[in-house]
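A quick aside before the break. I want you to see a complete sequence-to-structure record at least once, exactly as it would be stored in a machine-readable document. Don't worry about memorizing anything.
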Amino acid sequence: MVKRIIDLRSDTVTKPTEAMIAAAANADVDDDVLGYDPTASRFETEMAKISGKEAALFVPSGTMANLISVLVHCEVRGSEVILGDNCHINIYENGGISTIGNVHSRTVKNNSDGTMDIDLIEAAIRDPQGDLYYPSTRLICLENTHANVGGRCITAEYTDKVGELAKKHGVKLHIDGARIFNASTALGVPVHRLVQAADSVSICLSKGLGAPIGSVIVGSKNFIAKAKILRKTLGGGMRQVGFICAPAYVALQENVGKLEGDHKKAKIIADGLNRISGLRVDKSSVETNMVFFDILEDSHIMVDQLCKILKEHGVLMMPYPDCTAPPDFRNKLFFNSKVKEMENETKLYQTAHCCMTTLA
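That is the input. The structure line, written in C-alpha cells, reads:
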C-alpha cells in the first residue's frame, strides 16, 4: 500500500505552507476593486519593483493576465499579434485573444530553444501600406521560460533584440513570464533585466513559486490603468484580495530561493531516465524544473500504461498533449518546492525501471 504520493504532474499542484495560511488569516484587507486593499497594494508595489516596471496588477490567473495584456496593446479593431506557434497563448488559452478580443494571431515557428528567428519575426510584421488588405501588427509576444520546449530559458540578449525590432516598427512587446523566476534562477540574471525590453509582462504566482492563486501583470502606469479596467470587464476584480496576495508575498520570500534545488532535481531525474531502456530524454532541454521524456515506439509501451503503474507505486505524472509528437509516446514531469526529499529521484527512477521491465 502506498503511504506517500510524489506528485510530478505539474508545478501548479502545490499546497500552501503554514506561513502562507497564517499570512492570509492575518492579512490587512479592504476593497481592492475600489483600490483600498493595503496588502494587495504592497504586493503589487513589490512585484513592480522586482520587475523594474512602474506598476503592477494582481489578477486571478495567467490566462487572464495574458488576455488583458494583449487586449490593452491591441485595443484597435483589426490588430494583429505575432507569437510563437508553440507558445502557451496560442495553444492553451482557449483562443481568448480572438474569441474575446477580436485580435488576429500570426504565428512564427518556435525553435527548439523557445525562440523565434528574428528575421522571421520581422518578415511577419505587416507593411502599414497594406492596411487596406491586412491586419495591423501591434504586438509581439515571447514566453520565458518556454513551457512547450521543456521550460527552456530566453536570454536577456535575445529579448533585447526582439525589443529593438519592436521599437523599430512601432509595435509593443509582451512577455508571458509565467515562470520568469525559474528563468532568472537558471540564467543567474535578475528578473528586471530579463524583462527590461518588454512593455508588459505576466508573472504566475501559483506555479514554481507555490502560491495558492493568482498572477501579476506589470508595465507602465498608463498600461496598468487600462489593464485594471479590463480586469473588471472580464470579471477579475475581487474585493478583499489581500487574503490571496498575502500568501503570494510569502511565496516570494520563501520559495524563490528553492527554485535552484528544483532545477537540480530535474537534471538528476533526466539523467536517470536516460539510462532506462525504452525511454529518451533530451538532457540539453532540461534547464529549469521540467523534464519531457519520450517512450520509444519500439518499446511497445503507451504513456497511459506507464502513468497507471507509476500511480500504483505512488508517483503521479501527466501525459504531454503535444500535437507535434507521436501520440501516446510523450510524458512530462514538473518539480516544485514541495518535492523535497532527495529519495524522490531514486524512487521515480526505480519505479520507472520496474514499469518498463514489467510492460516490455
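Two observations worth writing down. The two ends are 24 Å apart (CA to CA). The domain at 258-359 is CATH 3.90.1150.10 (Aspartate Aminotransferase, domain 1). We'll return to this after the break.
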